[in-house]
Amino acid sequence: MTISSSSYKTLFQLVEQVAGKLKVSSLPQLAQMFRQCYLNTVETTTELLDDETTFVFTGDIPAMWLRDSAAQVRPLVALSSQDSDVRRLVFGLIQRQARYLGIDPYANAFNKEANGNGHQDITVRNPWVWERKYELDSLCYPVQLLADYWQATRDATVFSTEVHQMLTRVVEVMRIEQNHDHDSAYSFERPSEHLTLPSDTLPFKGRGTRTNFTGMVWSGFRPSDDACKFGYLIPANMFAVVILKHIVEFARDIYQDQELIDQAERLGQDIDFGIQTYGLVNHPKYGRIYAYETDGYGNYNLMDDANVPSLLSMPYLGYRPATDPVYQNTRAFVLSSDNPYYYTGTYIHGIGSPHTPAGYVWPISLIIQGLTSTDRSEQDAIVKTLSETTAGTNFMHESINCNDPQKFTREWFAWANTLFGQFIQGWAQQA
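Now predict its structure.
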């Protein structure tokens, strides 16, 4: 999308204000990095459509992920009350997300038009769907974006009939997936000849590993798009607890929908009980910590992934404050070599993902580490690392080789860029 000189005036003023402050910092290259990254979503991945909705693709992939589109735009939402162009962008994205969830709430990514991108996943039949990996966080992100927009603008016109249907559908699917093995018809099995990663399909004829009823909600895939090892993804369930409170508020104050209030309240209580009952582990080194995944039968996956929702992102999601003792224990674990996806190299140390090669750290994980840190020196070190590992591009990438920053995945990854802008904006304002 080409932006005219008259567009996003308040956004551009903010960018120049922050960039001016960064020019006199100890890392002057941050000014240009901030400009490029913070504006990357609105300059390159956003399409304002004639039907007043907004299509936001991820960068080098032309599809719109429910998660990524919300995450790309979320750092800009606060400007919706001051910048009419940002307001139009976010409003339109919320409406398009609601429309997509009405088409298929189990899909994680969609085409701009039916078959409009010339791609249709081998596992799906719906021409609107790019990929049909059921990820619990894909139900959460649109609700969080709606809550952020409402808080920023108090624009009640966003609460359309389609948005009401979206909120109802989110709760309905979560209730079904509380008891996936018995109540759900969902499965995802990619033929072996189409596999790109071993984690690109679910075992047991696409149904996933067995789970015990816990009150939590089952998820087939992680926010990395990798299959869950065990069906209850704890960080995604934490996110669900947060957004269900928003749904209760909207059902009460906007739609006067008592049935939705009752269902969302009960569901949130069930999930939180499940997290606290089945999601905690007594670690011999770190004490009481949250597991990344569990099946409710006593099996746990102790790790963290760079993608959000993650255990590291708990305060960013709003589930627990950064000072919470169990979060601090969990943070110590995930930022250590005891986390199998924590990598330490010559240039970078941080959390990666089984979705990318071993030894590759994700800038998103470093940014989340900074956003959830209460230690200024830790934040300063992260800013320095991020500024020195862009391979001369001044952009964030998906992941970076911890021993050679010239090696990276995904040159164009708008989520990481906009999130970096949010982090640097807050960091600069605290200086």
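The domain at 9-430 is CATH 1.50.10.10 (Glycosyltransferase).
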